[in-house]
Design goal:
There is one protein chain. The protein has 13 helices and 14 strands. It is of the alpha/beta class. Strands 2-1-3-4-5-6 form a six-stranded parallel sheet. A six-stranded parallel sheet has the order 9-8-7-10-11-12, with helices on both faces. Strands 13-14 form a two-stranded antiparallel ribbon. Helix 5 links the parallel strand 7 and strand 8. Helix 1 packs across helix 13. The longest helix has 14 residues.
């Protein structure tokens, strides 16, 4: 019997580009490099039946994809010392005698719909040595709002692969901006968020349109997520055109580009790198990985203050938008929802500082980015996760 290694069974998603699956796959790649642990993997059903590795590929290299796919389920009678479950909705197994780590992340907060039937208030998530793993203190606080014991919640941050996401050379940037029809004197803003209320895409569009109204030479690129979630930015734009017809002129609409196709990680790097600013005035996020990836690619960010990105967006890499605390609790269903409402005037000012080239000095950004890259690695995240297995 192998007693020199801990046997860790990961139950979750792989092969697709949903955030849970991406986190799982990055953690797998790094856990495979660590000693003292043997990995197994059991694939759980995707949240949406149309997800598949061909249409919604995760974008890893062939070698990394093969390493991820190589993990098998434990054979009958094969020992499992710990289970790490990373999928949604969240599931508890009260009868399990095996230590279980459950990955939970929430943006606004939890509700009964966040859990499989019968699991919403199960003590099994935090019983005995069982723990909940979450990536930010914002998400941790929302789990506590729901009623989970804070002593059984561990914050294990996410990371970024700097060999995948790194700054473009001057030639790469010029070439790819030209390919997208972007002039060098235009300020290019980027956002990859799903067009849901909590992501603040409506605020991005309103602030951008205001800058255009003021005469700024600016362009906006949005990454539509209709393939993965079936949600398009078109409805948000339609609603804003109806409510603000004078603001969304034909010229302003013509300055907005929507990328709808699935992109590999190498292609994402190019998209991050052509932008002057990644703008994310979110109302609620569990982590906001695109912000970290954009910074890794040399693109500073504009983010909401008081939210999840406070954990890693230091002054040298991002400007923070002033915001106010908000609540959308539904006591009838038992849900507790918290958010930050960004102030539109503060958002416009932060974006305009990039247009005026007065946001963050290049040397300041370079130094702060380098320090952040040392802290926010998937290797460090995997080490923290591995320590919880014992």
């Amino acid at each position: 019997m192998d007693t020199s290694h801990k046997h860790l069974l990961i139950e979750g998603w792989r092969g697709v580009n949903h955030s849970f699956a991406l986190v799982n796959q990055c953690q797998i790649l790094e856990l495979q490099k660590l000693g003292g642990v043997r990995l197994f993997h059991r694939d759980l059903p995707f949240a949406m039946p149309h997800w598949n590795a061909k249409t919604h590929a995760a974008g890893f290299s062939a070698a990394d994809s093969a390493a991820i796919a190589a993990l098998r389920e434990p054979a009958a009678g094969e020992r499992v010392d710990c289970i790490y479950r990373i999928s949604s909705p969240f599931r508890a197994e009260p009868a399990s005698a095996v230590k279980t780590l459950t990955f939970m992340v929430t943006e606004l907060g939890l509700s009964a719909k966040s859990f499989e039937p019968g699991s919403a208030h199960a003590e099994a998530f935090t019983r005995d040595g069982n723990l909940i793993v979450t990536p930010t203190h914002w998400s941790r606080d929302r789990l506590v709002d729901w009623g989970f014991d804070p002593g059984h919640i561990r914050v294990v941050t996410h990371g970024v692969y700097e060999d995948t996401f790194h700054p473009l050379s001057a030639e790469e940037r010029a070439t790819n901006r030209a390919n997208l029809g972007l002039c060098e004197d235009e300020t290019v803003y980027l956002n990859l968020g799903v067009a849901t209320w909590n992501k603040g895409i409506d605020l991005v569009l309103l602030a951008f349109a205001e800058l255009r109204r003021q005469g700024r030479r600016a362009r906006l690129i949005l990454k539509d997520q209709r393939g993965l979630y079936g949600i398009s930015v078109e409805q948000v734009l339609k609603d804003l055109c109806t409510s603000h017809p004078a603001l969304f002129t034909a010229e302003t609409l013509g300055a907005i580009q929507v990328v709808s196709v699935n992109l590999s990680q190498a292609e994402l790097r190019l998209l991050y790198g052509v932008a002057d600013c990644y703008v994310s005035p979110y109302r609620a996020e569990g982590f906001n990985l695109p912000v970290l990836e954009a910074i890794a690619c040399g693109t500073p960010a504009v983010v909401t203050d008081g939210g999840a990105t406070d954990d890693f967006c230091r002054p040298g890499v991002a400007l923070r938008v002033e915001s106010d605390a908000g609540s959308r609790d539904d006591r009838a269903s038992g849900s507790v929802a918290r958010y930050r409402e960004p102030r539109l005037a503060s958002l416009v000012d932060a974006m305009d500082r990039f247009a005026r080239r007065e946001a963050i000095a290049p040397a300041t950004f370079a130094q702060a980015r380098a320090a952040l890259m040392q802290d926010m690695t998937w290797a460090r995240a995997a080490q923290a996760l591995r320590a919880l297995v014992d």
